[in-house]
User: What shape does this take?
Amino acid sequence: MAEEKKIRVLMAKPGLDGHDRGARVLTLGLRDEGMEVIYTGLRQSPEMIVQAAVQEDVDVVGLSCLSGAHKTLFPSVVEQLKSKGVEDVLIVGGGIIPKEDISFLKEKGINAIFGPGTSIKEIANYLKENVKRS
Amino acid sequence: MELVDSMLAGNEQSLARLITLVEREAFEVPEIMSRIYPSLGKAYSVGFTGPPGGGKSSLVDRLTAVIRGKGFSVGIIACDPSSPFSGGAVLGDRIRMQQHYLDKGVFIRSLATRDSRGGLSRAARGALKLMDAFGKDFVLVETVGVGQTELDIVDAADTTVVVLVPEAGDAIQTMKAGLLEIADIFVVNKADREGADSLVSELEKMLHQSPKQEWWDVPAMTTQAVNDIGTEELYQNIVSHREALEQTGRLALHRQRQRKGEFIQTIQHRLMARIMKLVETDGSMMASLEDVEKGKTDPYSASMEILTNKTLLHNWLAELEREN
Ligand SMILES: Nc1nc2c(ncn2[C@@H]2O[C@H](COP(=O)(O)OP(=O)(O)O)[C@@H](O)[C@H]2O)c(=O)[nH]1
Ligand SMILES: [Mg+2]
Assistant: This one.
């Protein structure tokens, strides 16, 4: 009678930019893919994101950043999750990320980066195939 | 269980994982619950119910600030509906509570309704207990709207706050009875808009007409969550209700009744789940279920057949023994 596993996603917008249309569209899209998406709102510091991820016990942390500060903000989230002993969360990023930054971010522990053109289906499939927790 | 020990020692991550286990109705749940049982009963719980968009999350956010100001810790359980089409959900209550994200004294957890078979109220009750055992002084539970699940959830809370908006006058007429029954405190939020005071008088009229409980006068009050107006008064009303419950011995009675209910529900739920699993894996049982669906057998004789089926009961006992 145990529930089938639901994928829980924390959708977060670190940094100071004020646009969350993309994050909102993705939030609704992932809901339609059967996931539970916790939306935390604009202008989140890495500390706030990590705290929410811990309390909500999510499988995925999705980071969206348009301000260009992804190179410091994304790795900071990874670092802080690690320091709390959270190693089994999938961390993915999106927004406006220059191609040349992708390998740097992956080295820093971001599992995947999705560019502006990526379809929701593609993202959902990636998440379904790669969540680390059973 | 290591997870329970570290939760009781104050580890938030363990608390979060335990809530997930409760939410999934994992097989460890009875063990978890019995392990935390000695630590229960210290938290005071407040349920918030009312139509979507009325300002429940905003009020919970403001009230949390008031409670923190008094030096107490807070757990928040925020429920949102699952999509009946995809089974997914957007859990957005947290957006209103950002000011508390970094406060170590506040733990927020969002829950989706998932199935409609009482799953959420079981999960919410379980989460409430875990937060109690964790040491939260107050646990605030926000429900989805007004319906049966909501009633089940707020029934687990010590004080129930019904949140309405000034435009709710007509709606109230139709749900009068149910609301009167559950509300310990009425809040008309968004009082910055027209009509709040007249709704309050309407509520007061209703409250006077209904047979009055002598030990508690249900207050009807206004708030403006966005402007942080009325939240201290709301806290004071909650405290007064708590005192009334305690002084009349009703809090103890309420909790007695809850323990009994939980005992019975747990047995019912577990028995049901096990029997259904056996039925589902038994060819002849499935066949008789199909006969019921097609109308060949009536549901009553078919269920008697299951309840008196020796092999089934036998297997069931064997399974119970294996699990224990
Ligand atoms: N005008 C006004 N709007 C409010 C007030 N309290 C909350 N709101 C707004 O009402 C909307 C829904 O609030 P929310 O707390 O999410 O309601 P819930 O669905 O009951 O949890 C939000 O846009 C709030 O900003 C209030 O006192 N006055
Ligand atoms: Mg809400």
The mean pLDDT of chain B is 89. Chain B has two domains: 41-248, 260-323. Chain B touches chain A through 37 residues (CB under 8 Å).
